[in-house]
Write a structure and sequence with these properties.
globular, single chain
């Protein structure tokens, strides 16, 4: 089953140009590198220091295991609904319904926080312009990316991927240049940890609490599962995922190593990019402007990917009767208009919540949304043996992946700033579960009425 350029329609499937494995890798890079890396890594550094690199290595390993499982299922049985469809095949309607709606809510909430972050970053150049104007502009542009369809989305994400990787390489090159004495720097500015205390100042507990920020930097692999049905060779999904993760993990580790070695731990904070902080003391007046632009591009591309993913997922759920049928009804656009309309409504609501809620409360909600993505990663791992014939090594990898994800999730209980987000994530899951129970009894009651309405003897 393919995802056509007209989301939800199969009329143009045969005309749809297929993706090469490297193109899907680029889409993955474009969809994943975002504010979770450019900004979230700084929060991780404040919690564990240079040992944040271990958090990224463990998160990269966990992401690889999840991507490997998703790739095997996609190659064996391509499904437009990706992980949601596999959950449904593996465990029934309740699993597909829960996985799909948990994903929809989490991505919509994350999109709202991304819009707020983009607006704040843009005020770097236009400090007097109200935030809601920037939020509205970025929201409209994000919706336009969805409207242009799958093919246009892929091209845009490929361009964004190149820009974001180029920005990270620019930081790496400039940081190395500073170490070798350019821009007013010197080798003395480069300080590697000389003992365990310097490497991990807050010990094992600090690393445990920071692991979640490593996983946040890899969030977005779901889009590769959704688009994997468009590969020229369905077996290439695994290669595509491996190349994507190799690129991400390598540039993540090098850039974070340089940033944490060029600036003192106390200089890092949650509001500034650790890479901008690392190069701030040097004669690089252009860098804050260029890198701020790169972060905006990163945030916008991940936001656009989220909007595309939730709209595609909503259409698939509608086709499978896990959402009202109206959401898969086609119109003149390349996207079913009612599905797009619900996504827009969710986006508007998320923007409003981000403005009227206290900052701390909204931070809890967006943390909860990030955790809900990881709940779906667990669903992917437990679905694997139900979809494909898993080897003993596959099972070992599954248990390692689930353990890493559970350690990251439980680590949020260690800090007040993330603990409430964990509790809120459970509330969102409970809400979906309640709706699922109500739906079950409503359908059961409707079926019973229908049976009783037949004349006797039929």
């Amino acid at each position: 089953m393919e995802i056509p350029s007209r989301i939800g329609s199969q009329s143009d499937d045969k005309k749809e140009k297929k993706l090469s494995w490297w193109q899907l890798s680029l889409v993955g890079v474009g969809s994943i590198i975002g504010t979770g890396y450019f900004l979230g890594s700084g929060i991780g550094i404040t919690k564990t220091g240079p040992s944040i690199m271990i958090a990224f290595i463990l998160a990269g390993l966990g992401t690889y295991i999840v991507m490997d499982a998703l790739g095997k299922m996609s190659a064996h049985n391509p499904q437009k609904g990706s992980f949601r469809s596999y959950a449904k095949i593996a465990y029934g309607n309740w699993a597909g319904f829960s996985s799909g709606w948990v994903y929809w809510f989490s991505e919509i909430l994350i999109t709202g926080s991304q819009l707020t972050a983009l607006s704040l970053l843009t005020r770097f150049w236009f400090p007097s312009v109200p935030l809601w104007i920037f939020a509205s502009i970025y929201a409209i542009l994000g919706v336009l990316v969805v409207v242009i369809g799958t093919k246009g989305f892929e091209k845009i994400e490929n361009i964004f991927a190149v820009i974001k990787v180029a920005a990270i390489f620019m930081f790496i090159i400039l940081a190395i240049a500073v170490i070798f004495g350019l821009f007013g720097g010197s080798k003395n500015d480069f300080s590697m940890p000389s003992n365990l205390k310097e490497f991990s100042p807050y010990g094992l507990m600090g690393l445990w609490g920071a692991l979640i920020f490593g996983f946040y930097a890899f969030g977005g692999i779901e889009i590769m599962g959704i688009l994997s049905t468009r590969l020229k060779n369905k077996e290439d999904v695994k290669k595509s995922g491996n190349v994507m993760l190799a690129i991400l993990t390598t540039i993540y580790l090098i850039s974070i190593f340089l940033a944490s070695s060029l600036a003192a731990l106390e200089k890092f904070n949650a509001k500034e990019s650790p890479f901008a902080i690392a190069l701030d003391p040097y004669q690089l007046s252009f860098f804050p402007h260029v890198f701020n632009g790169a972060i905006i591009i990163a945030g916008f591309s991940t936001m656009a990917a989220s909007l595309f993913a939730v709209t595609s997922m909503l259409v698939t759920m509608s086709e499978d009767s896990d959402a009202p049928k109206i959401f898969s009804k086609q119109g003149k656009l390349k996207v079913p208009p009612f599905a797009l309309g619900l996504t827009i409504c969710g986006l508007i609501a998320s923007i409003i919540f981000s403005r009227i809620m206290p900052d701390r409360v909204y931070e809890y909600i967006t943390t909860a949304a990030g955790l809900m993505l990881l709940y779906n990663w667990l669903f992917i791992l437990i679905s694997l043996p139900k979809i494909v014939k898993a080897t003993s090594f596959d099972h070992i990898k599954r248990f390692v992946g689930m353990a890493l994800i559970l350690v990251a999730i439980s680590g949020t209980l260690l800090h007040k700033s993330t603990r409430m987000g964990f509790y809120m994530s459970l509330l969102f899951v409970a809400f979906v579960a309640i709706v699922l129970i109500i739906r079950h009894f409503t359908q059961k009651k409707g079926t019973k009425k229908k049976v009783n309405s037949y004349p006797k003897g039929i």
